Amino acid sequence: xxxxFGLDVELDPGGAVLFEGSVAGFPVERLANVPEGRYTVQAxxxxxxxxxxxxxxxxxxxxxxxxxxxxxKTPGNLYSDATAVDVDHGAGEPFELTLDRVVAPVVSPxxxxxxxxxxxxxxxxxxxxxxxxxxxxxxxxxxxYEDEPxxxxxxxxxxxxFNLEAPFGFPEEAGPxxxxxxxxxxEIQLEAEAYHRALGHVETPExxxxxxxxxxxxxxxxxxxxxxxxxxxxxxxxxxxxxxxxEDALVxxxxxxxxxxxxxxxxxxxxxxxxxxxxxxxxxxxxxRHPELFGGAWVMFPDPVDFRRMGxxxxxxxxxxxxxxDEEDRDRDHRFPSQEWGAAERPFRRSxxxxxxxxxxxxxxxxxxxxxxxxxxxxxQPWQAIFGPVGKDGYPRPLWDEQTGKIDREVALYxxxxxxxxxxxxxxxWPEIGAELVGKLHFFCGExxxxxxxxxxxxxxxxxxxxxxxxxxSFTYARxxxxxxxxxxxxxxxxxxxxxxxxxxxxxTLVG
Length: 512
Hints:
This protein is α/β, with parallel strands linked by helices. It has helices spanning 123-129, 178-183, 187-199, 205-212, 246-261, 278-289, 360-370, 380-387, 409-417, 422-437, 454-464, 491-505, and strands spanning 4-5, 25-26, 37-41, 44-45, 48-52, 58-62, 78-79, 83-87, 101-102, 115-121, 134-140, 155-159, 221-226, 239-240, 244-245, 271-277, 297-302, 347-350, 356-359, 441-446, 474-478.
């Protein structure tokens, strides 16, 4: 990673900002610590706007420009040319960078025969944020949709990080915006495809398109929701004190609009969910918070579903997110020194072989440089913004101190009591909602998930496999050395699996 440095500024047009040696950075802790030498340097300004929320708070936050909350791609952000400079600590002469370039607007791919996109203004979100706020959807239609105007179709709701690509990567017809679409391809999707190939589950986008349009393939509609927030590229589909009523917007406004615009079967069995990582968590949240609305969820490598293991920390018992507590290390080898004199760092990401790439301490410092007050848009801060309470200053009250790692127990309990710990949510409500969820919950994760997301799944599995009524779902873990993004089937195989599930719950047939 190239060193970078961040600073909150108030900057008028034509104004200047001085980056002094004390400015915080990552992985170099301070600007003054950069070794002497020749470097290529570039400046970027992430432009915030003032939001006057209905809760009475006024907060400066990134703009939602439908780019997925990536500050290097946010239209209207300013940046300079890359410039070669010599760093000589003895010289003391500053160099100038001019923010004279502007990030271009997002180019939304055009509709095609099978792929449609739309956005709607959400009244619930607009009221909360004090300005127009939108949610949207990308819709993949089955073969023959226009030829059978009386026919209705079940829907697979595919959750993901923000992107405007067609569901399941369905390739659209080539056109003048093909290059722009390719540039907008989600990096996570590219990494997922790499893991997919490693498993031997090779299905090119063209092969999926061929299957989707073939005779005998299940005739369903696929829909991806878009719900970016000022905090993150996804709202996690929940109502949030900091992000606003996104659950109300998606379930009460966007989903009905999908069913109004397209000929869907408007019954529970005909709405199923899937997604991975943040999309996996979102799929599970929608299913269990609306068990009567959706007919099944295939939850793949989800964000932490049990906050007794957010990463490897128990936020209800641990004192720190950064270091392991000795009493938790029950299986440690006593030939090695006690943690009393050298506490082990909590890892955030590892390789599938176990090599730690970055710790929670390091990731927290990285995000604090990108954005203060939970404004980085990366991962740890968005969790705290969406799941946590509002602080006295109107910004999220963090779960842990970014400098020390000390956990705020009141925030942890708030997250649980608001229902964001999905395992705790299910355990508390299973007597009331369990019968509606029988046969609807299916989980998949790699045993070597790079973010340790298999561990909270084990805790949820312990509960569900002892629950009454029996949940009658499934937990499947990939063979050893399979990490995040590992998927046990190709896209076309999954659609067939989902269609079989829906057909078993219906009286009709889903195959053309």
